[in-house]
């Protein structure tokens, strides 16, 4: 089996596509706040976060904040809950949460909860269990979970549960590993895992592993490195990760590396991107691959950062 080309991946992230020479310019321009979260978390898992100019990133993140308290993907864009979580996660990575006005950000998120307990992504109102997860994860990091109706939020997520044990984006929506991560993560953070039929869901999730060792997101779909994260984190949270073949999955992820220029792709021989590089390395971290920082499966942040947030360590 090949090995993780860690140094090449660090180089790749620092100079995505080699168009520019610094992490800051490239990520900020093309990938916005989500991209910053993927790239910086990958660097942190690899123990290389200090290669980035943190002052420059933090100043840019804060300029993405809107007067409503939410964050946009880039300066001058409209705020959305997706980018708000990324902003909070990036500040957490740099131990800079203290520069945030916690109440202002929390008020923005609280204002997105609907009467039925669900969350909209922004003022335009699209509803999705992704946004329930983001709201719960973000408020929990800010120690402000009590500002929303948690019981209703949990009930809404439970209403998106299907007979196969999985979860969809809205009630009746087809089970999909990405949505399952969101629902399982949100239920874990709120201490509501008793709503999950762990054996039934574990069965559906471990059936996502295909012959090559990779995982897909739904039955009959092709494997994709990002599902190493969505499926694996869910299996770990419900304590059924021993139901998949870890060695084969490690091999699949390593087979998706660009050994020459760094980066990881969705499938062997496809073009690499920062998103799949993050999910590949985060997946390897969940699989306890040597020399990687451990990542928390519910908060999607390194475990030492989560400990600092909740236990002040
Ligand atoms: C599939 O994406 C993934 C999802 C639907 C889940 C997305 C979850 C979030 C945005 C919450 C924040 C996540 C983290 C890790 C903090 P896709 O569009 O690639 O699906 P496809 O494979 O079906 O195209
Ligand atoms: Zn993918």
From TrEMBL:
CC terms in the record's Gene Ontology section: Rab-protein geranylgeranyltransferase complex
Domain Prenyltransferase alpha-alpha toroid: 4-300
Cofactor(s) in the UniProt record: Zn(2+)
Free-text remark on how the cofactor is bound: Binds 1 zinc ion per subunit.
InterPro entries for this protein: PGGT1B-like, Prenyltrans, Ptb1, Terpenoid_cyclase/PrenylTrfase
Database matches in Gene3D superfamilies: 1.50.10.20
Enzyme class: transferase
Record-level Gene Ontology MF annotations: metal ion binding; Rab geranylgeranyltransferase activity
Any one GO biological process: root development
Pfam families (alphabetical): Prenyltrans
EC number: 2.5.1.60
Keywords: Metal-binding, Prenyltransferase, Repeat, Transferase, Zinc
Catalytic activity: geranylgeranyl diphosphate + L-cysteinyl-[protein] = S-geranylgeranyl-L-cysteinyl-[protein] + diphosphate
Highest taxon of source: Eukaryota
Family note: Belongs to the protein prenyltransferase subunit beta family.
Function: Catalyzes the transfer of a geranylgeranyl moiety from geranylgeranyl diphosphate to both cysteines of proteins with the C-terminal sequence -XXCC, -XCXC and -CCXX. Required for male fertility and root tip growth.
Oligomer status and interactors: Heterotrimer composed of the alpha subunit RGTA, the beta subunit RGTB and REP; within this trimer, RGTA and RGTB form the catalytic component, while REP mediates peptide substrate binding.
Entry protein name: Geranylgeranyl transferase type-2 subunit beta
Organism per entry: Cephalotus follicularis (Albany pitcher plant)
